[in-house]
Amino acid sequence: MDNSKKKVSIGLIGLVGMLILLAAILAGLYIFGIHHFTNHFYMNTSINGVNAGNKTVNQVKYAIQNQLRDYTLVLKERGDREEMISGDQLYMEYVDDGTIDKIMKEQDPKLWVFKIVGTKDVKAPAGFDYSESQIDTILKDLACFQPENITAPENAHIEDNGTTYEVVEATQGNVLKMDAVKAAVKNAVNKGETELDLDAAGCYESPAVSADDETLQQKVQTLNTMVTSNITYDFGDNRVYTVDGTTIRTWIDTSEDGNSELNRDKVYDWVVQMARGTDTFGLEHEFTTSTGATITLDGGDYGWCINRDNTTDDLIAAISTGYVGAMDPQYLYKGVDRGINDIGGTYAEVCIESQTMWVYQDGQLVNESPIVSGNESTGFSTPSGGVYAIDAKKADADFPTWGINVKYWLPFVDSAGIHPATWRGSFGGEIYKTNGSHGCINAPMEAAEAAFNCLEIGYPVVVYFSDSQVAGVQPTNEVHAG
Questions:
Q1: pLDDT tens digit string along 188-203?
Q2: How far apart are CA 396 and CA 386, in angstroms?
Q3: What is the tens place of the pLDDT at every residue in 455-482?
Q4: With 80 as the cut, is the pLDDT of residue 123 above it?
Q5: Residues 6+ apart with CB under 8 A from 215
Q6: Where does residue 142 rank: exposed (0-12), middle (13-18), buried (19+ CB within 10 A)?
Q7: Geometric angle at alpha carbon 44, from 39 and 48, rounded to 5°
Q8: What is the mean pLDDT of residues 218-246?
Q9: Per-residue pLDDT tens digits for 23-44
Q10: 16 has a pLDDT exceeding 80
């Protein structure tokens, strides 16, 4: 019994000793831990992602410096391109502002045993500095700023697809704004960001005009309206001038910035060509005389003359509304007949050599009569060799210079015209050579009346010297009534 008690006592003493030893070891470890974690961070501690476990303040600072050197900012560019800016390029350096020391001081080393498990990531402002001036150099060397890699933005514009005009979407391009990129990079670096989307940051230049631009949409609508036009000018005798979409397209110019509009000069040039093909005013007229001869009259003031500016304006206005139909040009001067033979069938014909006047109405001879024309010997010859337009029509006209009154008066060239000469006893022959008028056509009453009744203002008077000599002796004095 005594031996048994003795054995139990020895066992208890051994157990207690072991416990005391273990407690001593644990106490020693704890005390060591307190001492260790007085200047070392807890295990599993990180500061701003840097592993600080079991590291001293200086070791953590060194680790942060290394982290800054490894810092990379990825620039995401258009076209799925990426470029990087490194901490080394920026000369990034850790700035000791006491933050790490403060974190260490706030750490209670007596609690280290409770920090063995779990992790702790401390977010703290990590002071650092870098060379802002270096950003300019870095950016200038990036591929996205090299001319060969740059595509300028293009405004939305109008194009002719062959059928209609359409708005072509703007091209965004990839031109970066240096100041905007610099500001965005600085902001990202200051925040410690590792990725910068240049497009999302608004660093690219944008086209000035987009496809939904109201003015652009209105212009394309106007152009498509224009090319639906189909306008005809019909001058008779198979002389038809047509303006359709095909022609109008050749008049629409597109500038370098994509702006399309009707070119007035081109429209005007087309009107000029039409005028050259149809105008007759003051130009040559082929004429068949009453004796059957065909002569060419060159001169006078009769015929058609298109007002080119006004006709151009009218045509542009019609095109702008998409007009379909016939139009007439505006005229500076008008004849009687719009056919190729614009003299038509109603006119007076005077032959100086034969001293004869013929009056026609609708192609039928109404009167044939001898006349007396301008006095050749005194320089008052009646102008000849042309087609002249009746300038006025007046009954009972007074000629104050001569103190006479005439019943019918049809001036057609300068101040000379057709009128009855009741004071003359005879007409025809060679009276005109020495006793002619002051340029007028002196006619018997019946002939003057026929001309007055048949001719209106603007109607033609054909004057020629003879079938073989169109122009005769021209006046050297100013012809006038009488």
A1: 998 889 999 999 999 9
A2: 28
A3: 999 999 999 999 999 999 999 988 777 6
A4: no
A5: none
A6: middle
A7: 85
A8: 95
A9: 788 778 888 878 898 889 888 8
A10: no
pLDDT band per the 50, 70, 90 thresholds, residue 124: low
pLDDT at 45: 84
Locate the domains of the chain by residue range.
12-130, 227-278+297-332, 347-464
Structure tokens at 171: 């091209």
Question: Locate tokens 């005798």: which residue?
Answer: 237
CA dihedral (279, 282, 288, 294) positive or negative:
negative
E-strand spans in 155-229? Answer: 157-160, 165-168, 195-197
- pLDDT exceeds cutoff 80 at 311: yes
**Torsion of the alpha carbons at 139, 141, 143 and 148, rounded to the nearest 10:** 120
Joined tokens for residue 419: 């009128």
Whole-structure pTM value? 0.67
Distances from the Cα of 197 to the Cα of 8, 35, 82, 121, 383, angstroms: 78, 48, 9, 28, 88
Q: Where are the beta strands (DSSP E) in 105-213?
A: 120-122, 128-129, 157-160, 165-168, 195-197
Distance set, CA 240 to CA 235, 243, 249, 278 (Å)? 6, 10, 20, 10
CATH class of 347-464: mainly beta
Alpha-carbon distance of 57 to 105, in angstroms, equals 10
Residue with tokens 């031109």: 175
Strand blocks (E) in 91-234: 93-94, 120-122, 128-129, 157-160, 165-168, 195-197, 230-234
**CB within 8 Å of 306: residues ≥ 6 apart:** 271, 274, 275, 278, 279, 329, 330, 331, 332
Two tokens, residue 438: 């002051």
Determine the pLDDT at residue 4.
66
Candidates 3.90.1640.10, 3.90.190.20, 3.10.20.800, 3.30.200.20; CATH matching 227-278+297-332? 3.10.20.800
What is the structure's pLDDT at 441? 97
Residue 306 β-bridge partners? 331
Average pLDDT on 55-77 reads 86
What phi, psi does 151 have (nearest 5°)? -120, 120
Q: Which residue do the tokens 């320089």 mark?
A: 379
Question: Over 90: is that where the pLDDT of 77 sits?
Answer: yes
Q: Order of strands across the sheet with 230-234?
A: 240-243, 230-234, 324-326
- Interatomic CA distance for residues 319 and 74, integer angstroms: 56
Q: In this structure, what are the phi and psi dihedrals at residue 156, rounded to the nearest 5 degrees?
A: -60, 140
